[in-house]
Specification:
The complex is a heterodimer. Chain A is mainly alpha-helical. Chain A has a domain of about 200 residues. Chain A has 11 helices and 2 strands. Chain A has a two-stranded antiparallel ribbon with strand order 1-2. Chain B is globular and about 60 Å long. Helix content of chain B is about 75%, strand content about 0%. The chains are: A mainly alpha, B mainly alpha. Chains A and B meet through helix 4, helix 9 and helix 11 of A and helix 7, helix 13 and helix 15 of B.
Chain lengths: ~290, ~325
Amino acid sequence: MDDVSLLFGQFLGGLTTAMFLFLIASGLSLVFGVMRVLNFAHGSFYMVGAYLAWQSVQWLAPMLGNFWLAALAAALGVALLGGLIERLLLRHIYGREELYQLLLTYALVLILGDAAKALWGTQQLSVSRPPILAGGIEVLGVTLPLYNLFIMLTGVAIAVAGWLVLTRSSAGRMVRAAALDREMLGALGANVGALYTGMFAVSSFLAGLSGALVTPIQSIVPGMDVEIIVEAFIVVVIGGLGSFWGTFWGSVIYGQVLSFGILILPSFSLFSVFALMAVILIVRPWGLFGRPLR
Amino acid sequence: MKTPATALVRRIPLVIVVFLAALTIPWIGSRYDTFLATQIAISALFAVSLNLLLGTTGLVSFGHVAYFGIGSYVCGILMKTYAMPFSIALPAAALGAAFGALVFGFFCVRLTKIYFAMLTLAFSQIIWAICFKWNDVTGGDQGLPDVPYPDLGWMSSVPLLDGLRIADQFYVLTLIVVMLSLAAIQRVIASPFGLMLTTIRENPERAASIGLNVRGYELAAFVIAGGFAGIAGALFGIFNRGVFADFVYWPKSAEVMIMTILGGIDYFWGPAVGAATLVLLNQKITSYTEYWPFVLGSILLVLLFVFPGGIVGGLATGANWLRRKKGGRAGA
């Protein structure tokens, strides 16, 4: 393998990580942008999605194409869970101090993490790759697994779909209005409560979906929730908390820094992404693509 | 009924009373009681140091564990790798942590609210990444096992302390260090400087408009809190017989935050009460079930929705209510 294909391989690897993180971080960013709540439990939703996908695959084992159904079922299950949590708990803390919001979502991290342990144990679980995406294709001397290609395309598709919904649909217009001024939107007769529940469910759906889609390439283990949430935080901070395209480009930057950081300083690639997060917060707290808060 | 004697008793600082009461544990309790008491004392100092930011200054730091970790590693490395005495390692740990807090805090205090919390989290994760990967110095993912106990030979020449086991002697040392630190933090909070911090918490804009250097004060609070967290970390590394990268992982920051608000952020002793409660509860509950985090999460939910003032806040409200009720009856 020559240098070019080595670099290209790193690039593709970084891109896969990026699109995958975008799936997760987009929901986190959406919720922050509109509700101003930084949801630590978003990583837990991702983990629950992974476990639910594994469970559904077991149940649907004899069926053809069971992986796709299982992923959808997992994402819907997590969306339901998220909607319930918004209705029962989060609803009461909008507008309270950040300290209480952070700790409430952290309480959910603890509870969901242990619930998953109780239900599925602590051993590693894994799901096999759907047969249709088992192979790989050769690009510039690098073998790209079809599944990774699929993740990349899904990321781009979700980005485009999310952008279309936010800018072209009436629901998207409501979401953007809620981000700007929730009281005014309520005063104009919109049902802001239902909007928030729906949006939180969509955000949870995205987290659950990414959890389900990761199962063929990563084993499911306890602790994946606290690990991923910090990565998602880095992504949304780079792009700008609450900024949709910012989250997309933030994921791309994060993926590449991690991927090439490993080439340059293997043991300090972890360090490099946290340092990137810190530098961005210091220089432009609202991120590369965000706008300062009022 | 205020006789001169009770008035005199009331003037004894609580920190001395707590110190004397806690000091009896090695004699009246079991070896395990001392173990728990050591853990409580260290956690209490950690939580009280966080509360200087959280409660007094109103800064939500989600990375306080970074300074605890720096203290642990500095003390552990000096004592284990360089065989330095505790009397040098402890101040070095406090200074190291305070220096870390100065460097990081310089940037953090420029931000507010959620951005402040995120930047403190980012810095604590940087420290974690360094501790986790820098094998030559920190032992990487293996950590630094077998940090030695300090040389406590001098205690053998002190009457009463000479018969104690080494773990008990370390408890006595921990108690002395923790109580001196708590007294110092209390002095800071009660000083004009501390009152300025409270002013900043209540209204940063107004504080700035009367000419207060808000960032400067916040940074000073950040450095002091970091230094005392470093002392707690140094003690914990020795108590734990080793320093590990886990100490610095971000959920630990959430844990100390839970201790702090469980006790009550509006009271000086609140975080210490919270620390004691969590340590004892953890010990009780883990003997029944392995699902301690689940219990902790549920406690946290109840706390946030029912007792946002924490245990001490709840007790104070209850006491006020009783007093008013009694007063009402006397009046009628």
